[in-house]
Each structure stands twice: as structure tokens, then as C-alpha cells.
């Protein structure tokens, strides 16, 4: 059986809890395919999950990482329909994490082609964050000429959301701290200092009664002040109190769901949910968005590349989340495997070359 190396969270805590583990890879079933991962991002959700604050991973033992870029190693009926042949560069989002591994066995329907000319490390910054930004903007339902507040505008999700909203002809108010002011203004948005106690009232005044929508990861009730009386509040996260993140996130989601049909509507933007329930929409989005990135219509965060063998350093870098930057782990070549499609027999053709160091 072929092997892979995965970065498992063995206990909740700081970066030292991440362990590189050699594992067997099962043979693909049905429409599944094998992807050799070449790049995977390490973002704020991975950090939250590692610390034990992520609602979808309440127990340790899992492999974090929502998105990846890699090379298709095997084909299935679905990959053929999608025009993806063995050797193709592909990208995707996993609905339940698990991308921090050298090899994945996953449904082919999760995959989008990476356009020629788009660097794999740059492409790896995009699947989760760019689809999140795009999905949140769609949920915001603001027509051209309208206004939107983007919270955390210099983070990867906020920066992509601001760029997409600007392209759609919206006036964007982007919140960040004063240290991020320059980066926010470089995005062409009106800077909002979230440390100013009057920030929400200032947005309300500047928009003549409130913004038409907000894309927000804080869950702060002040967002309601910044919104117009008929505005839409799109939640990408609910940053909870330290040590209470899971409960706060659950409460925030339930409250938002209860206000789905209020005058000021609330929407929860969940890309894992989108991937799990509306696979074709997700894949269409990802394919189109990677195309925009390749065409230079969107600017990705700068890549901080870290070898997978130093996954703990990658987590440490993600802990310090630098505005305008994204951590991407680069995978070793590792063992190559082939599947004989007729006999479904695995053969290892190269020995492992990775060092399962810490
Ligand atoms: N729903 C989904 O499917 C999905 C997918 C991906 C990510 N997410 C979530 O989306 C959020 C953003 O992700 P990211 O990776 O872009 O985050 P990030 O790197 O953590 O950036 C967040 C930004 O928020 C700003 N910020 C901090 N405190 C704030 C406050 N009180 N009010 C407004 N802004 C504040 C920071 O600005 P300064 O640096 O200037 O302080 C920072 O630039 C995260 O909570 C993440 O978990 C959700």
C-alpha cells in the first residue's frame, strides 16, 4: 500500500502539538481519486482548530488544512467528465479539513483545474479564502452602486472580498487596525479603524443611514449600527472569547439563523457547508475564481512558503498572521504510487524521501 505523511493534531495547544505521522493510504473507491498534494495553506481556521476552539473539530486527532493544490495521480469516471487527466494540476477545498498531508483520497468532484501560468503556491492561498469571499458577497445581495462593510479587510478573506466587491461596483468600507491602514487603503476601500469606539456610527453617517451589507467575522453587535435598517449581515465566523470559542461560535450561528428573515437579515457563510451540499456551485466558483487570479484580475496575499517537514514553524507563522500574507506549506516529493486501473493494484515506485522531522 502507498504511504503518506500527515500533520495530525495530537492534543490541543501551541504549534508543538502538531505531529508528522506516516500512514497508509487506502485505495480509491467509486469516483474517488488520489491527489499528491504539493501545496496547502495554513490559515486562521487551522490555528483555531489546533488550539481546540473550532466548532467542527471538538476532539484532537484530526488533520487540519481546508485547501490544497496538487497533482492528480489517478482518474475516475467523474474526473474524466471534468476533463481532469492523471498528471493535471488541481486545487480543492475539503469539507472537513485534512489537507495537511502528502496524499489525499477524495471525490473527484472536489477538484478544479489550476490554470496554466498560475503559480501553485499562489493558487494554494486561494481555494478556501477566495471561495469564502465570493460566497459571502453573493449572500450579501448588494446591487451595483450599493455599499458594503468588510471587516478584517487586510486579512486574506477580507482582502479578496474587498477586491470582488469593488469589481462589482460597490462602495467598500474596510475595517482594520491603524497599523493596517496603508494596506487597507491600497485595496481602494475607505478605511475604518475598528479600535475607534465610534467606528460603526461613522460608517452609518458616511453611507447616509447605514451600509447595505456587512461581511463580518467578529459577531460584534456594533455591526447592526453600521448597517442600514434593511441591511444584510453576513457572518463568516464568530470570533469568540479566548477559551469559549466553540460555544460562542455555536451561539452566534444559532442567533444568526433565528434572524434570517428579520428586517436586518443575517446569513451564515460556511464554505465547508457549500462544499458539502452544493458541490457543483462550489466547483464552478473555484474554477472561475482561479481563472481570475491567473488573469491578474485579483491579487493574492504574498506567500510565506514553509517546507512541510517544518509544519510546526508553519503553524507558528500562522499564529502571527501577518496582514497581506498567507502561510503555505510545500510538500516533499515523497513516494510516488501508481494504480493499475484494471486491477486496482497499488505499486510503490519510489521510496519515501521525506524526513518526518518536527
Ligand atoms: N466561513 C468560512 O467558510 C470561512 C472560511 C475561511 C475563513 N473564515 C474565517 O474568516 C475570518 C477571516 O479570516 P482571515 O484568514 O482573513 O483572518 P485573519 O488573518 O485572522 O485576519 C483577520 C483580520 O481581522 C482584523 N481584525 C481583528 N480584530 C478585529 C475587529 N475587532 N474588528 C474588525 N477586524 C478585526 C485584523 O486586522 P488587524 O491586523 O489590523 O488587527 C486582521 O487583518 C476568520 O475568522 C476565519 O476563521 C471563515
Which descriptors apply to this entry?
about 350 residues, Rossmann fold, 2 domains, 7-stranded mixed sheet, 6-stranded parallel sheet, 12 helices, 17 strands, globular, disordered C terminus, binds NADP nicotinamide-adenine-dinucleotide phosphate
Tell me what the structure shows.
- The protein is α/β, with parallel strands linked by helices and 358 residues long.
- It folds into two domains: 3-125 and 300-348, Medium-chain alcohol dehydrogenases, catalytic domain (Quinone Oxidoreductase, Chain A, domain 1); 129-273, NAD(P)-binding Rossmann-like Domain (Rossmann fold), CATH 3.40.50.720.
- Helices cover 30% and strands 27% of the residues.
- The chain contains twelve helices and 17 strands.
- The strands form four sheets. Strands 3, 4, 5, 6, 7, 14 and 15 form a seven-stranded mixed beta sheet that branches. Strands 10-9-8-11-12-13 form a six-stranded parallel beta sheet, with helices on both faces.
- Helix 9 links the parallel strand 12 (227-235) and strand 13 (265-268).
- Helix 4 packs across helix 5 (156-167), helix 4 crosses helix 11 and helix 10 packs across helix 11 (279-294).
- The longest helix is centred in the last third of the chain and has 16 residues, at 279-294.
- The model is unreliable at 335-358 (pLDDT under 50).
- Bound molecules: NADP nicotinamide-adenine-dinucleotide phosphate.
Amino acid at each position: 500500500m502507498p504511504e503518506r505523511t500527515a500533520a495530525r493534531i495530537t492534543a490541543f495547544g501551541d504549534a508543538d502539538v502538531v505531529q508528522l505521522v506516516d500512514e497508509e493510504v487506502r485505495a480509491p473507491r467509486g469516483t474517488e481519486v488520489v491527489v499528491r498534494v504539493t501545496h496547502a495553506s495554513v490559515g486562521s481556521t487551522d490555528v483555531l482548530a489546533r488550539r481546540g476552539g473550532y466548532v467542527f473539530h471538538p476532539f484532537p486527532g484530526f488533520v487540519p488544512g481546508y485547501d490544497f493544490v496538487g497533482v492528480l495521480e489517478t482518474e475516475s469516471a467523474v474526473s474524466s467528465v471534468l476533463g481532469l487527466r492523471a498528471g493535471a494540476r488541481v486545487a480543492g477545498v475539503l469539507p472537513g479539513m485534512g489537507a495537511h498531508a502528502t496524499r489525499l483520497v477524495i471525490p473527484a468532484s472536489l477538484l478544479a483545474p489550476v490554470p496554466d501560468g498560475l503559480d501553485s503556491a499562489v493558487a494554494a492561498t486561494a481555494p478556501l479564502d477566495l471561495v469564502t469571499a465570493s460566497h459571502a458577497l453573493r449572500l450579501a445581495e448588494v446591487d451595483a452602486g450599493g455599499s458594503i462593510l468588510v471587516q478584517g479587510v487586510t486579512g486574506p478573506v477580507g482582502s479578496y472580498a474587498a477586491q470582488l466587491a469593488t469589481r462589482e461596483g460597490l462602495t467598500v468600507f474596510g475595517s482594520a487596525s491603524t497599523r493596517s491602514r496603508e494596506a487597507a487603503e491600497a485595496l481602494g476601500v475607505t478605511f475604518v479603524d475598528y479600535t475607534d469606539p465610534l467606528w460603526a456610527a461613522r460608517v452609518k453617517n458616511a453611507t447616509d443611514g447605514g451600509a447595505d451589507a456587512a461581511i463580518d467575522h467578529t459577531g460584534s453587535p456594533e455591526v447592526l449600527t453600521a448597517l442600514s435598517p434593511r441591511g444584510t449581515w453576513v457572518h463568516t465566523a464568530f470570533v469568540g472569547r479566548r477559551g469559549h470559542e466553540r460555544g460562542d461560535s455555536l451561539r452566534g450561528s444559532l442567533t444568526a439563523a433565528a434572524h434570517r428573515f428579520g428586517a436586518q437579515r443575517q446569513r451564515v457563510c460556511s464554505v465547508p457547508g457549500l462544499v458539502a451540499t452544493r458541490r457543483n456551485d462550489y466547483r464552478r466558483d473555484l474554477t472561475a475564481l482561479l481563472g481570475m487570479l491567473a488573469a491578474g484580475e485579483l491579487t493574492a496575499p504574498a506567500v510565506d512558503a514553509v517546507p512541510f517537514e517544518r509544519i510546526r514553524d508553519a503553524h507558528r507563522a500562522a499564529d502571527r498572521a501577518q496582514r497581506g500574507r498567507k502561510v503555505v506549506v510545500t510538500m516533499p516529493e515523497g513516494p510516488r504510487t501508481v494504480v493499475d486501473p484494471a486491477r486496482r493494484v497499488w505499486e510503490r515506485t519510489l521510496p519515501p524521501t521525506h524526513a518526518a522531522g518536527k
